[in-house]
User: What shape does this take?
Amino acid sequence: MKNLLWLLLPVAAQAQSLQTEVVAQGLNSPWAFAALANGEWLVTERPGSMRKVDAKGKIGAPLQGLPKIDAVGQGGLLDLVLDSGFASNRLLYFCYAEAGTGGNGTALAKARLNAEATALEQVQVIFRQQPKMTGRNHFGCRIVEGRDGNLFMTLGERFSGMQRAQQLDNHLGKIVRITKDGKAPADNPFTQTAGALPEIYSYGHRNPQGLVLDTQGQLWAHEHGPQGGDELNLVQAGKNYGWPVITYGENYGGGKIGDGLTAKDGLLQPILHWTPSIAPSGLAQLTSKAYGDAWQGSYFVGSLKFRYLERVQLKDGKVVAQQKLLEDIGRLRDVRQGPDGLIYVLTENEPAQLLRLRPGP
Assistant: This one.
């Protein structure tokens, strides 16, 4: 690779050094990526493009067929995941900010990638966050396919809709669970609750931008707190995660939020909270032994604010270790484990690039 760049960074002796290898650079505000076959990748760019990166790091032209993207503020073309049967059906799912009556909101679409990987075909919007709101912030928008084939997606409370994160008649500040046709599964927790939207799986979230299914089939999410109080949560059906009734954060500029509570009966506590905020984005669990036994099972979180990768080690549902890696690498937007068992990260800027993390000598 012509633009191959290696950077050796010391980390704690519990593991080893890491080497970062540039897979691709020159992207435009990238937000998410997914591994294709033979070392190729799909990458979303927030301003509204999806591109293929070939095995040599060449970035292709924007794919044709995307719907109209409302790329304002934190909105735009956001997360991307391949269907579990992608090798045979070439289906994928992506979420984005969509304009419409009343403002904009997060939408989820499915499509088929054509054989040449130059266009999306049969694009169908299968879910739209309700209500749409005027605003530029807190779209959430991470997607995970569950073991049963249903889809989970995170939805921000759009900032001005914070109080509605506690209500079940809207999708603001929620994690939803839907079928691949956009319907609510019959076993969702609120399908029999009067006035509740049946897609809702959990509520009381602020702006979740990390979502992963662990090796036991459990769902984990992290979300942005307000000037402190970023959270890592084990997501359970029907549970209330508290925002904005409880939080470890505070109003921008200072001052308590609401009654200033950090705990209340019936509202779940985070497994971990970051204060001050690290602005987390992207979440992956390492299932391979590529970096040694000590790291297997660890979770990896990107920090937009402090520009590093954090390793979080859990035992029996509790945090037993946290470790900063790749300090000052840039605003880390997405983190995933690749087909080779290695961790890959996506930096949003300075420069915008897809990086492969190799274990050091």
